[in-house]
Amino acid sequence: MEYVLSLLPLAIKMVIVVGILLLLPLPLTWLERKIAAHIQQRPGPMRVGWHGLLQPLADAIKLLTKEDHIPTEADRMLFAVAPVVALVPPFLVFVAIPFGDPVQLFGTTVTLSLADLNVGLLFILAVSGIGVFGTILAGWASNSKYAVLGSLRSIAQMISYEIPMGFSVIGVVMLANSMQLTQIVAAQQGLWNIVLQPIGFFVFFVAGLAEAQRIPFDLPEAEGDLGAGYHTEYSGIRFSLFMLAEYLVLVALAFLNVLLFFGGWLGGPAFLPPFLWLFFKVGLFIWVFMWLRFTFPRYRYDQLMTIGWKVLLPLSLLNILVSGFLML
Amino acid sequence: MARTAGERHGWIGRIFFADLLAGLRLTLGYMMSKTVTHHYPDNEKWVPYQRHRGHHFMNTNDQGEVNCVACGLCSVICPCDCITVIPFETEQGVRRPKVFDIDLARCLYCGLCEDACPADAIKLGQEYEVSTTNRATLTVHLEDLIAAPRKAENGGLVRPAKLEPTGGQHSVLQSGPSSGLDWWSRIRRPR
Ligand code: SF4
Ligand code: SF4
Q1: Which ligand 1 atom is nearest residue B81's CA?
Q2: What per-residue confidence (pLDDT) applies to B1?
């Protein structure tokens, strides 16, 4: 009984986090469409609800009631499994993301994270690495040229950008002397890492964009040349699972950027509660990602590889070297 | 060829992505500027210029009779063959149309009927919402033409309007100040 009770806070936190994560794509699609529209001097969705706020709900209902089509040539089992596989890593990432310092609630100390792992950063990088499996399975199972090409591209892209991404955070880890995300944030008290690690931030930001397959690195689902890439053959609810995974990766990326380089929940003057600071910064990052999306064209494939191997990798290595020397 | 912002600032520009930043600045400017979309049919409606060729109307004279003398010229010149005119003679001995039908589903709104008419009778007006769920209602008769909206007094204005899903007109003009002729001045053009 004691044991079960001790699990209760964790269970509550889990329900809250999963619930929020499942609902988050709804406002995000709205935001994305609004930003796209305003960049093109349109108002965007306006007719469902106030300023189109209920539009995502209408879209969700549409997607859920649409025919769930499986191509005859497809590998049915893998085809069904792939969206779920794609959905798992983003959720796993949020296991290790802390949302603030522990708070006192009803006389007990509640940590604002599901698990504050002492290798949190490593765990996150490792888990986001499995994200590529959903893409590969989807492309392979669809048995379609576009889908396979898309997933091939995504494999190459994910592998080449994971390396600079991993290297770019080493500077942060050196500064904090820890891989625990709460420690990393605590180490930024006074001075945010962005000041000390501008190159590291740049590499992490760009590699993160590529990992999340956002424009200008969205080659795996280039609508122009691949139909829709690895999820060309998906429709209805399975497609919406991919969308969900994509938005969650985006949010996770924004969280990581804020936690590692922008002081997490540490704000300037303390007129906002810490977690609001965190969400404010994360929101800002999400907005920047969307702004980038509707500004830049897509990179060519060879340019993508050049940026990854010839620019970001040397830069991240240089960053480690320089931070190492400066710390000595 | 125009040089990109990245080239203009030499290697410093290349390192700090001057061209990407220029693009971001541009889109940010657009994001912050006003939208140019007309909120038609919910809140706004554009009233066309005088020269606009919309739904036909029939002019009447001071006695309330139609101007048409049923000469049939419009029906002859019409490239779509969509006007039917059948004449008759009134007690005053004037030739008038007994039947005057226009099949709007076939009309291409060229305005040739208006040009051909010797009696200043048939005209093309401001009405442009003719969608319907019943094709038969697209054949308009003489009384519909007499009642149809005339040419717009001050065309080119965006006026407040309200959507009314029933009836022939879909977006109905409301009284209230117009947002003016210069909606297109909101279009943001990079200098
Ligand atoms: S506008 Fe042209 S097509 Fe239409 S009725 Fe007149 S002449 Fe015929
Ligand atoms: S509308 Fe004009 S052109 Fe046509 S029949 Fe009447 S008078 Fe003649």
Answers
A1: 8
A2: 44
